[in-house]
Amino acid sequence: MLKHQVIVIGGGLAGLRAAVESAMMGVDTAVLSLLYPVRSHSGAAQGGINAALANMEECKDDTPTRHAYDTVKGSDFLADQDCAEILTTDAPKRIYELEHWGVPFSRLPDGRIAQRPFGGAGYPRTCYASDKTGLYLLHTLNEQAVKHKVQVYNEWAAISLASDGKQNHGLVAMNLQTGEIASFAADAVLFAVGGAGRIFKRTSNAMQSTGYCLGVAYKAGVPLKDMEFVQFHPTTIIGTNILMTEGARGEGGYLVNNQGERFMSKYAPKAMELAPRDIVSRSIQTEINEGRGFPEGGGCMHLDIRHLGREKILERLPGIRDICISFLGIDPIDKPIPIQPGQHFIMGGIDTDKDGSTILPGVFASGECAAVSVHGANRLGGNSLLECVVMGQRSGAAAANYVKGKSSAIKEAVLNDALKKSTSEVEQLLKSNGKERLVNLRDSMAQTMTDKVGVFRDGKAMSEALATIQELRKCYRDIGVDAKNRKFNLDLLRTIELGGMLDVAEAIVAGAVARQESRGAHSRLDFKTRDDVNWMKHTLAHFTPDGARLEYEPVTKTKWEPEERKY
Ligand SMILES: Cc1cc2nc3c(=O)[nH]c(=O)nc-3n(C[C@H](O)[C@H](O)[C@H](O)COP(=O)(O)OP(=O)(O)OC[C@H]3O[C@@H](n4cnc5c(N)ncnc54)[C@H](O)[C@@H]3O)c2cc1C
Question: FRET partner for 238 with CA separation of 20 to 30 A, picked from 91, 127, 455, 487?
Answer without folding.
Answer: 127
